[in-house]
Amino acid sequence: MTAQQLFPREPRRMKQPRKDLLRDALAKAATTIADQRMAIEHMDAQLQSMREAYAALWAKTNGRRWWRRVFMVSP
């Protein structure tokens, strides 16, 4: 009898994950990236609309701050 028959070895582990696991991880990462890109574009659109509203308010008040309009008397 040989040593291999008396003491069977455990199967060796693979050094790399299987291709289907890698594909699943890649698909999940791509989905996450796409979702984050959509969220960033949405926030950029909101920021742009806020900037436009601020510019319109600034033009309406002729560059004067709101507290100056409230607390100071216009001549």
Element-level helix/strand string: HHH
What oligomeric state do these chains adopt?
A: single chain
The helix fraction, in percent, is: 55-70%
Mean pLDDT: 83
Tally of helical segments? 3
Q: How many DSSP-defined strands? A: 0
Q: What is the topology?
A:
Elements (H helix, E strand, L loop, with lengths): L2 H4 L12 H42 L5 H6 L4
Structure description:
The protein is 69% helix and 0% strand. With 75 residues, the chain is mainly alpha-helical. The chain has a domain at 20-62. The protein is rod-shaped, with a radius of gyration of 32 Å.
Keywords summarizing the entry:
single chain, rod-shaped
Would you summarize the structure shown here?
With about 80 residues, the chain is mainly alpha-helical. The chain contains 3 helices and no strands. It has helices spanning about 5, 20-60, 65-70.
